[in-house]
């Protein structure tokens, strides 16, 4: 009783070819940069876009099967979808927006409104049913859109960047609520996002999609700890360096050598957290095993620290305190020494 | 902030254009025999022509809405081939001299016409020179205004609302009725008002296809034209009535629909 899909869609130069399975009650996040084909994938699952190949099965029912010429139109699929900017119908009250689905699926007006009112209560909008969508705040609109998607008890819930239209403060509160509603939802959920925090907070599993294909799959913690591509590493704020393991050292593809704590062999990825990198104006004494000369390529304030982008044999991100940044007298183009302890370096097979 | 002065080479022609457009209307007001207004307006025939004009223009607008809104949807939403050709065909009446439209209608629906002869033989109904002919002539020239207006509104409306409706179980017809149509309602209303105003002023196609019979086909514009030759005073008063209706239409468009559309 799950969603099983293998979707092939061609959109101009991009070919999306993604396979995914989501169990009942499970939340899968599809994480990827803009233009990776995430939304296209979601539109195929919703039935809004016909796939060029593959099949989509929900609870054993084929929704799409290109080879067998099966295609269930969008309006006959028992699903709920939350769109990026909510798309609440502006000409209907909030209550009638939520009652829209039950009405079109055959409920009487009274029954549809009753179900809608119950859901508005659940998402904390019981008092706002008479309002127009334009009179809601971003967070309220998001909750109304969620109620509208869930009111029919769908088999599949699709969320397209559900939090991206919200400001940072609202986002935090709405994310927590969304997490609670997703935990209560019995069907399969597919969440599309480009925010790793949303994926980590909301999903049981993450599928990273780049250029239409899956580049990494796993639990959010696993993906965050062991990124496989630069995109994911950048998202979770790690420096990712591909290389070859040679015992207690890794020879990088770019030419540098990184000392590690445990012996490794073969093709590996080296991940280094920016906060474990220390910067010095000259080569530090005590001969640390990992000390590399580098050029400061850029610096951006990042909370109370400054995130420095370093160019060199070992390209790194480094977080230093604002005070340290000032004391080092750093400016773009400055030469520095970057130092990392061997036991702060994460290594895993490529 | 100080605005730049409008350059004279632009200002002078612009002022002339305003004068050119406004002076004839001012002349109409100046020459109106205000003291005899009451008697002239209540003269036999005036009320009749006005009533006929309003009724036929309203019927033509209703027909245009019923047929034109679906046509606008097809032009804006369907992916059928030949849409560009279809749009061009549909908008021909916008630029066609109305007299030509009247002649064309006559050739098709007249007693000897392609459809008209068949209609006369099978049902005994003849269309030309009846009030129905007035409505048909007005619909012919006025419907494109509605179609263009509604098509524009449909193109401007966010089609993703229709996607949202589909994910909520609405088929395309339900989506059209419950989502698309309410979203473009201001555009439909603006198109209907434009269409009505155009139908009310229709002259050429009407006189060609429907003739000029008081009580059945003599609308206000025809009455104005005839009166000008017999009784210029009456023509001025009838023209004044049409001017008032036109200005009222414009105000309705501005305040109710165009203003709201511009603000949204």
What does this structure look like?
The complex is a heterodimer of chains A (350) and B (264). Chain A has 350 residues and is an alpha+beta fold. Chain A folds into 2 domains: 2-234, 3-Layer(aba) Sandwich (Rossmann fold), CATH 3.40.50; 238-349, OB fold (Dihydrolipoamide Acetyltransferase, E2P) (Beta Barrel). Chain A is 25% helix and 38% strand. Chain A has helices at 38-46, 94-104, 109-122, 138-150, 168-184, 196-202, 220-225, 230-235, 322-327; strands at residues 2-11, 14-23, 27-31, 53-58, 61-65, 70-71, 79-82, 156-160, 188-193, 205-210, 213-218, 239-252, 257-272, 278-280, 291-302, 305-311, 316-321, 335-339, 345-349. Chain A is elongated. With 264 residues, chain B is mainly alpha-helical. Chain B has helices spanning 8-31, 37-41, 46-77, 83-95, 98-109, 114-123, 131-156, 160-167, 172-183, 185-200, 204-209, 220-230, 232-263. In chain B, helix 10 packs antiparallel against helix 13 (232-263) and helix 12 (220-230) packs antiparallel against helix 13. The longest helix of chain B is centred in the first third of the chain and has 32 residues, at 46-77. Chain B is globular and about 65 Å long. Mean pLDDT of chain B is 89; it is low at 259-264. The chains are: A alpha+beta (350), B mainly alpha (264). At the A-B interface, strand 7 and helix 2 of A face helix 8 and helix 9 of B. Chain B: Pfam families: BPD_transp_1. Chain B: Belongs to the binding-protein-dependent transport system permease family. CysTW subfamily. Chain B: It is a multi-pass membrane protein. Chain B: This is Molybdenum transport system permease. Chain B: The chain crosses the membrane at residues 52-76, 88-109, 129-150, 179-199, 234-253.
């Amino acid at each position: 009783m799950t969603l099983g899909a293998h979707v092939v869609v061609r959109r101009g130069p991009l070919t999306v070819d993604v396979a995914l399975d989501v169990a009942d009650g499970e939340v899968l996040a599809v994480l990827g940069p803009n233009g990776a084909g995430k939304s296209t994938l979601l539109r195929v699952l919703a039935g809004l876009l016909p796939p060029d190949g593959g099949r989509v099965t929900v609870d054993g029912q084929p929704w799409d099967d290109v080879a067998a010429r099966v295609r269930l139109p969008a309006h006959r699929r028992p699903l709920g979808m939350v769109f990026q900017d909510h798309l609440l119908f502006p000409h209907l009250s909030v209550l009638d927006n939520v009652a829209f689905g039950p009405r079109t699926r055959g409920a009487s007006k009274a029954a549809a409104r009753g179900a809608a009112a119950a859901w508005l209560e659940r998402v904390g909008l019981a008092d706002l049913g008479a309002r127009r969508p334009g009179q809601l705040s971003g967070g309220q609109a998001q909750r109304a859109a969620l109620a509208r998607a869930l009111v029919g008890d769908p088999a599949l819930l699709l969320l397209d960047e559900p939090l991206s239209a919200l400001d940072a403060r609202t986002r935090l509160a709405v994310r927590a609520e969304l997490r609670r509603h997703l935990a209560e939802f019995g069907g399969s959920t597919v969440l599309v996002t480009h925010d790793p925090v949303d994926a980590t907070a909301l999903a049981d599993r993450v599928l990273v999609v780049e250029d239409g294909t899956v580049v990494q799959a796993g639990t959010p913690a696993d993906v965050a700890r062991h990124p496989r591509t630069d995109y994911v590493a950048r998202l979770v704020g790690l420096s990712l360096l591909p290389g070859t393991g040679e015992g207690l050292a890794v020879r990088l593809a770019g030419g540098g050598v990184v000392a590690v704590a445990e012996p490794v062999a073969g093709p590996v990825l080296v991940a280094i957290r920016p906060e474990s990198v220390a910067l010095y104006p000259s080569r530090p004494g005590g001969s640390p095993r990992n000390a590399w000369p580098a050029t400061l390529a850029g610096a951006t304030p990042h909370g109370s620290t400054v995130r420095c982008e370093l160019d060199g044999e070992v390209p790194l991100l480094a977080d230093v305190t604002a005070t340290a940044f000032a004391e080092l007298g750093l400016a773009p183009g400055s030469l520095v020494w970057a130092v990392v302890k061997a036991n702060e370096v994460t290594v895993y097979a490529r | 902030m100080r605005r730049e002065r409008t350059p004279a080479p632009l200002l002078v022609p612009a002022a002339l254009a305003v004068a050119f457009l406004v002076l004839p209307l001012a002349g109409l007001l100046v020459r109106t025999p205000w003291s005899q207004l009451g008697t002239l307006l209540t003269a036999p025939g005036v009320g009749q022509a006005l009533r006929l004009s309003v009724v036929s223009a309203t019927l033509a607008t209703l027909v245009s809405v019923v047929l034109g809104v679906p046509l606008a949807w097809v032009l804006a939403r369907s992916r059928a081939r030949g849409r560009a050709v279809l749009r061009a065909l549909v908008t021909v009446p916008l630029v066609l001299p109305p007299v030509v439209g009247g002649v064309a209608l006559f050739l098709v629906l007249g007693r000897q016409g392609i459809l008209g002869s068949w209609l006369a033989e099978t049902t005994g109904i003849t269309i030309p020179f009846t009030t129905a002919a007035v409505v048909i002539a007005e619909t012919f020239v006025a419907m494109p205004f509605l179609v263009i207006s509604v098509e524009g509104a449909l193109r401007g409306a966010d089609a993703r609302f229709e996607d949202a409706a589909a994910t909520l179980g609405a088929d395309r017809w339900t989506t059209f009725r419950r989502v698309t149509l309410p979203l473009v309602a201001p555009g439909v209303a603006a198109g209907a008002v434009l269409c009505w105003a155009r139908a009310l002023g229709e002259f050429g196609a009407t006189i060609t296809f429907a003739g000029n019979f008081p009580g059945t086909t003599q609308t206000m514009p025809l009455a104005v034209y005839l009166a000008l030759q017999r009784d210029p005073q009456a023509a001025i008063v009838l023209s004044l009535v049409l001017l008032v209706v036109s200005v009222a239409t414009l105000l309705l468009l501005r305040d109710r629909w165009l203003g709201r559309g511009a603000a949204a």
